[in-house]
Design brief:
The chain is α/β, with parallel strands linked by helices. It has one domain: TIM Barrel (Alpha-Beta Barrel), CATH 3.20.20.370. The chain is built from ten helices and eight strands. It has helices at about 15-30, 60-75, 95-115, 140-150, 170-190, 205, 210-220, 240-245, 250-260, 260-270; strands spanning about 5-10, 35, 80-85, 120-125, 150-155, 195, 225-230, 275. Strands 1, 2, 3, 4, 5, 6, 7 and 8 form an eight-stranded parallel beta sheet that branches. About 45% of the residues are buried.
Length: about 280
């Protein structure tokens, strides 16, 4: 069995400068996939703690922009739906979450069809909001939407990389919930990645560019057999990013640099990892 990797840029559709870089990366780097944020225009943008620019264009306009850029890049990539929920979450959670997920998937699907791109092929979760890491879990609703639409879902079969050193993901109740969700996805025929991984901290935790690169190089060496995903948030150094993502902007610029770094590309090749667009 081979080791395959989906290398994803998340948060597309939220910043014009980052969107242009992401589209260019798809045509000239190891990047193979894009997660598009499609929050409804009546909702508040996601919060600053995840590095999300507050003045980003959120909703249909941002989706149309990134989808057009992806189409011009000529890669034929099928966008992912990077689901967001408003914050703070109300007491008891969102009873209409299935409608919210479906609306965001429809927004991306319409833009893709208009631009001649393939329909969205997978669903994932901005800041883990669908998984219940920050509040109520929406795993049953998410799996249901994926099953009805033939979408894959960013729910890892194993937590060994994403859960490194995380006491929350080591808890017995969380592990039991995860195992139940994996079983439900399998029963529904929803495709899952073997593992997922990223750098979960901000600038302080990343340290500097060599340290961040070493982190991702180590992740490559730990990928198991099967198809896994590494996701990043690449963005160029702009005044908008610095103002909106204090504590996170350097790491985002370093992740952009990583995707053009021949050391990273050579390590993928050296380890015989196949780059693919879907799990």
């Amino acid at each position: 069995m081979t080791r395959s990797l989906v290398l994803t840029a998340d948060d597309a559709g939220t910043d014009p400068d980052a969107d242009r870089e992401i589209a260019a990366l798809l045509a000239g780097s190891p990047l193979t996939a894009v997660g598009v944020i499609a929050t409804g225009t009546t909702e508040e943008p996601p919060g600053v703690p995840d590095g999300q620019p507050r003045d980003a264009v959120v909703g249909a306009a941002g989706v149309d922009r990134i989808i057009r850029l992806l189409a011009r890049a000529g890669t034929g990539v099928a966008p992912g739906v990077h689901v967001t929920l408003p914050e703070p979450e109300p007491d008891g959670g969102f009873d209409d979450v299935t409608d919210r997920i479906t609306t965001q998937a429809d927004t991306v699907a319409r833009a893709a069809a208009a631009a001649g791109l393939p329909a969205p092929d997978r669903l994932d979760s901005h800041r883990g909001t669908l998984y219940g890491l920050l509040g109520r879990s929406y795993l049953p609703e998410s799996i249901g939407v994926c099953a009805r639409r033939g979408l894959a879902f960013r729910l890892p079969r194993g937590l060994e990389l994403y859960g490194d050193g995380d006491p929350l993901l080591a808890r017995d109740d969380v592990r039991a919930r995860h195992a139940g969700a994996v079983a439900a996805a399998d029963a529904a025929g929803v495709r899952l990645p073997r593992v997922i991984a990223t750098h979960r901290g901000g600038d302080a935790e990343a340290g500097d560019y060599p340290a961040l690169r070493d982190h991702y190089l180590r992740l490559l060496g730990r990928l198991p057999e099967g198809t896994s995903e590494i996701f990043l948030h690449p963005a160029p150094d702009t005044p908008r990013l610095r103002a909106a993502a204090a504590g996170w902007w350097r790491k985002r610029t370093w992740e952009l640099r990583l995707l053009g770094d021949p050391v990273f590309t050579r390590e993928i090749e050296r380890q015989g990892i196949d780059l693919v667009g879907r799990w």
